[in-house]
Structures are given as structure tokens and as C-alpha cells.
Specification:
Number of helices: 1
CATH class: Mainly Beta
CATH superfamily: EutN/Ccml
Strand order of the largest sheet: 1-2-3-5-4
Structural class: mainly beta
Low-confidence stretches: none
Helix content: under 10%
Order of helices and strands: EEEEHE
Number of domains: 1
Strand content: 25-35%
Distance between the termini: 43 Å
């Protein structure tokens, strides 16, 4: 899973049938510290996220599976899908607990 910020929406008058009714969002990939990380992408929204929200998304086959296809013929052709809206992130330096304590 990757983090992103919703920065826009794509309007499409014609889509593949399996994407009818699906919202297409423009995401700015971000680090979990909310810093931009790469080029903007288009993703299908599965959770009702909106402009400016911090979300998590998946790519490739996981994105297609998130759209609910049961077989190859009814799985939508998507490369990215938003799976959740992030309410908060708690980052800690987990490596500090692994470092040996130096006495002296």
C-alpha cells in the first residue's frame, strides 16, 4: 500500500462498461510523512474519498481485484485503486529499539 493525496478528479464521458459509475481521481503519491513522492496518477475510488484527503492505494493486480471482479472477463482494467482514507499516521523510529545500548 502506498500513500497519496487526492488532488483532482477525472471526468470521462465514455468508459469501459466495467467502470461505469466508478469515480476516477487524480492522486499525488506521497511519503507517509506527507511529502510528495513522484508523478501524479489516476486511480479508481472505492471508498468515497474527496479532494485534499490523505488516502492509501494499491497498484497492479491488487487494484483490479479491489474493484470486485470474480473472473478475468469481469475484472475492470485498472492500474490503481484507492482503498482507504487515512485518519492519522504514527511513525516511530523502530530501529532505535534494535540498537545496542552503549554504557560508559
Amino acid at each position: 500500500m502506498q500513500a497519496a493525496k487526492v488532488i483532482g478528479r477525472v471526468m470521462a464521458s465514455r468508459k469501459v462498461e466495467s467502470l461505469e459509475g466508478a469515480r476516477l481521481l487524480i492522486l499525488q503519491p506521497m511519503t507517509w510523512r506527507r511529502e510528495p513522492d513522484g508523478e501524479a496518477i489516476v486511480a479508481v475510488d472505492t471508498v468515497g474519498s474527496g479532494a485534499g484527503e490523505f488516502v492509501f492505494w494499491v497498484a497492479a493486480r491488487e487494484a483490479a481485484v479491489a474493484m470486485g471482479g470474480k473472473s478475468l472477463s469481469d475484472t475492470p482494467p485498472v492500474d490503481a485503486a484507492v482503498l482507504g482514507i487515512v485518519d492519522g499516521v504514527n511513525l516511530q523510529d523502530w530501529t532505535a529499539a534494535l540498537r545496542p545500548k552503549v554504557s560508559g
